[in-house]
Each structure stands twice: as C-alpha cells, then as structure tokens.
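Morning F.,

Quick status update on the modeling queue. The single chain you submitted on Monday has been processed. Sequence for confirmation:
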Amino acid sequence: MKLKHLLPIAGLLAFTVNAQEPEHFCSTDEETQKLREQNPELKAAYDNLHQEILEIVNSPFQQKSDQVYTIPVVFHVLHEYGVENISDEQIYRAMEIVNEDFRKLNADTIDIVSNFVDRAADTKIEFKLATLDPFGNPTNGIVRHFTHETNIGDAFSKLTQWPRGRYLNIWVNKSMESPGAAGYSHFPVNVEGNNRFMDGIMILHGYIGDIGTGNAYRSRALTHEIGHYLGLPHTWGGTNTPGLPENCGDDDGIDDTPNTIGSNTCDLTLSTCNQIMPDNLADTLDNVQNFMDYSYCSNMYTEGQAAYMRNILNLNVSQRDNLWSEANLLASVPDGQVYTPIADFFTNNNSLSACVGENVSFKNWTWRLSGNNNETYTWTFEDGSVETSTDVNPTVSFNSPGWKTVSLTVEEDGLTHTVTKENFIWISPTWPIHQGLVEFNFDDNPDYWVIQNPQNYPFQWAVRSDAGVNGSGAMFLDMSNPYEDPVAFTDEFFFEQRRGKSKSAFVSQPIDVTYLTDAVLSFDWACATDGSTSDEITEELNIYTSVNCGLTWVLRKKISGADLVNNGSGWDSFYPNQTSVWSTETATLPNSLTGNMLIKFEYTGSDKSNNIAIDNIRIDGTVGIDAHGMAENLKVHPNPSNNETGWNIKYDAAIWGGALAQLVDVSGRVITTTVLPENLTETNIKPTTNASNGIYFLKISTTDKTVQKKLVLN
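Structure tokens below.
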C-alpha cells in the first residue's frame, strides 16, 4: 500500500473515559500546520525518509535480527504540587506496560483476532529508566520540575531536555496546549537541527500506567506515542481523524497493516476499506487492535511496524541510532547505581500565606526514594511554634508576621539531601495595616505589598517610581526581555530564549473592611504584548480577595487576551508614560466581607508577553459610624516624630483604659508594646533606639475593638 498524504508530526492521542469505550480526540492537524508553516521543507524530508524505509520494510528480502535494542528513558514530571506530580510507582508501572507491549508479553495478546495472530510482532525493542544522568550522577530516571508550564503543554514546556541521542525524553504534565489532547510525539525527521528541543514525548499524567491517576483504558497511550517517536504513522495514514471514508485513499504504507478508515470503537468485525477497494480483499478485516489505531482495545504491533521502528533505530536521524549503542547503554543505564533522595515539600493546600498563630500543614514531596521505607525526615521552621520536627508531614504555626524560611532534610541508607526554601511562606499580621477606604498610588510605601514568585522566575513585580499614570509610581512587571532557560542538554549546553507562560503576583497587607459597605475595588492598568494573533495573546490578569490571610482566595475580576492588552504590540520594551493608554476596571466587593481582607493581583504571562503596569489601586465605599467613633477617641501627636520624642497617645480612658498598644513596622513586626493606663488620659510610646526611619503603625486593641493609626518616624 502506498502513502499518499504523510504526517510530519505524530498524532496527539486523547481519550475521555465514558464507560468502557470512550471517545477519542486528536489535535495533530493543528500541530502539523504550525510546524509546516515554520519549516516548509519538513514534508519533503519526511516523504523521502519514509519511502526509503518502506522499500526495506515491504521487501520480501527484509532481513530480521534477533538483537534487542534497549533505549534509556527519562521522565520529566512538570507539576505545581497537584495530582499531576505522580508517584515513582505509577511511572514504574507505565514502563512495565510499555515493555510488555513492545516485547509481545502483554497478557491480552490472547485476544488478538485470528486474522492477525501471525502478524503480531515482538519488536525486540525495550526501554529502561536511566540510572545515570547527563552529568554522570546516579538517578532513577525521573526528574521533577515545579513550573506553571504543566498547565500549558506546548513545545516550550519541554524543560531541561536530556541529550536526545542518549535518552528518550518523556514529559508528564497537567494540561495540553491543544484541548482534548492526551499526548504527542514528533517524528524523528522533524526534530533535526533547530527543532531538536522539540524531540521527545509529552503526555498527560492520567495516561501514564494503570495505577495512581492512570487507569487501564488509558494505559496504552504511551505505547502509541513511542510508536510515533520511532516513526510510525497512524494505521489509516496521514490524517488525524479516524472514521472518515476518504481515509481509504490514504494509508501508512506498511503492507501488513490493512488499509482502513481508522476506528473510534472496538468493533473487531470492521472491514472498512475492503468494501471500497476490491484489490485489498485479501485483508478481510481492519487491524482494529493495532497500537497505532484509536480503538482503545489495542494490543499489538505488526511485523512490518516492528521492522519500520528498528530501521529508524539504525539511521542517524535525530541520533536515534546512538540510543541503543553499547557505549550509550554503559553511560546511561549501567546497573548497580545508588542514588541520593531529593528532599522537597510544599504546603498541603498549596497556599503560600497564613495568619500569625494559624496552623500550616506541610506536604512532604520528597522523591527519588528507594522504596525501602527506611527514610527519615528533619524539618526546621524559622520562628515556628516548633523549631524542628521529624514528622513526615508536620503542622506548624508561626509566631510573628513576615517571610519565613523552611528547610527539610531527608536521609536514606546514609545518603542525605537538604532543601532550604528561603522566604517560603508569608505570615500575615492578625491586625489591619489599613482600614476602610484606602488608595495606593505607589509613590511611597512599597512595602505595603508582598511579592509572590514561588517558581523563582527572573522577572517579578516591583514598584517603579515613574511607571504610573502621569509619571507617578506604579507596580511594574518587566517581561520584555527573554531570559536564558536551560531547556536542553545537547552536545553543547543549550539555552532557549524564553519569557515563559508564568504566574507572578503581588498581595496587599491586611485591610480592615469590618465597617465598610457598598465597597468597590478599582485600579488602572497599562499592558502590552509582542503577540499578534489570538493564539499568541493569552495574557491574563486575575484579582482575588481573601479574608483568611490567603488560605483561600475568591476571584473578583478577570481580564484576559485582547481586553487586557490595551497598548497593543510592536514595542521594544513597553514602558508606561503620559502617552500610554491606561484603562480602569472595577470590582464590587460584597457586604458580607468582614475582618481583615487581602487583595491579590495575579498576572499570567505568555511566551509573547511584553510589560504591564498597575496603578491607583483603591477601595471606595461607605464607612460605618462605629469605626469613626472609636478612632475619634484617640489622638496621636506629634506625627511625624523621632526616636527621642516618640508619640503621645491621648485617649478616652473609659473606652481605651487598659488597652494594649503595639508599635509595628510595615511588615507587621512588633517594635514596642505598652498598656494604656486606666487612670490617665495620655501616655507616651517610643520606638527602640535603633529603629529605622520610615512608616510605622500604632495598633490599639481591647477584647472587642481595634483601631490603627499610621505614624512616621524621621
């Protein structure tokens, strides 16, 4: 059979479990078009190589070899500490399934229909998890990356590719760029030269193995994608839509896979193209059970497909011939390696903030363990309710506001590893830093805002003195300059210029909204992009509020795509000025909000992002009389003041006598504490002698009321 329309990118196989025979979805056509537009020469290159191999495979003189080709494998798990951060055991199980399928050791070969029993092949290709990494360090062939790219699943999500001439790289992620897709792999000829960083397989975590987040129905997706990685097209040929009658005019070119329109169901009686093309009557059935079909009951490769893949492995195309070489196996998968565990952790609910005194549960995400269950853990917590813990998943509270550093050490069989995460979690004061109606123009006091950048991107929000409306201060995020990211190891260390589909946020200090009604949050923004199409302009700005110190967040406003990019494209490095376009957005805050509220601005950039600025964040509304009434019974002077003089507090003793007065800095750290005497109406409070000049807050509280005033020390 001859292939009329060839496929330059392997299929994106997808399944949705709806009972036992789910629907299938695929997005190869989109990926094919993208790559062909960028590299028009790829189709001809693929055609030539494909025909060259077919002449060998379909020849009656095709030579068979009993040599088993072993391919080293590395799994890259992209995650944000969710279910997508699958266990080592799930990956081990996936490797068992793949090896059974390729060596014809899978138990369901007993179900192969009689027409194809003699064609079912032991490909004599095996796969082994790497035991040495590219630098010669012992490994179990699994590495993990904390990255927002797990939500993207495009070519640029293939982070830290190990040398593709030494390892088959497989990336496991949470979502795919193409909706409904479960995985994809490029054909070898398409990832030569500048496309080398695209080499390898990307697949959703739910299609890895049949345990954990995987299941039996999805477990053959990886076998399918490895077939593409080794050059095989779908059995119906060069389209990605099975079941179409016109597919009978196409084919995969391999003689012992019957011409077919392709299957979306496991109908073992299908005989599609034989009814249309009489010259194919020798094949009375479709090979529905082929791994390169979509029937979801696949259990075999044919002898011709096995020969095709083995021929690919004997060609110097994208270094496939080096994978199974003796020298590479000695360098990549030698036996007897002992690897060090990798300590890792996050909070149990993925929150990076909490209140003073609030319990925080930590989740141990340590990986690369031997499985002997003899590891021990030692945690340390800066300013924690306990300084150290040996619990696997401890719960700790923190005694004061500010950033806290947490570390974890794991020890197994005398091998230890420590991870220290500085400024890991922000502990918010339980008292308000602001009250009621507020406005932030960012001309001063940038410490009011907490910058969150947990994935350590080289860009993050910062206060810029001239980036706001009319040249005032503003929060500014510079994403116009690509940074060098080590996405691949090749013969030379390869860095990809990227900006990254990343998240970066800034969060307010607590705002007391107890007496605030009919509140409206508003802000101004100016944003630019380098994208030119809707597929490229994917920037997104989400605004959240929290009344439990960031434990949970509620979305109040979302602006995305062209609605967000109000300054278009074409900028070198967009910087707001008086000629820039500024827009204003508002969000109504419900009257049910009470207590101390946090506001979070979270920006999700794209590979085409330029810069964004935010200014004039404000809360308008009606302030209840009780709040003003309490404040009117307190006077503080002089303001500004100095270390020597301090501040005099004049108060109504009947209301405030015996109240606790605390002088705190902008981070919430307590500087001085005193009690307002019950028999006086005025007292003095001073900072410590070494207190720095700047903004402070005087917090005065009783069991049922709290008032706060802003002070200046100079």
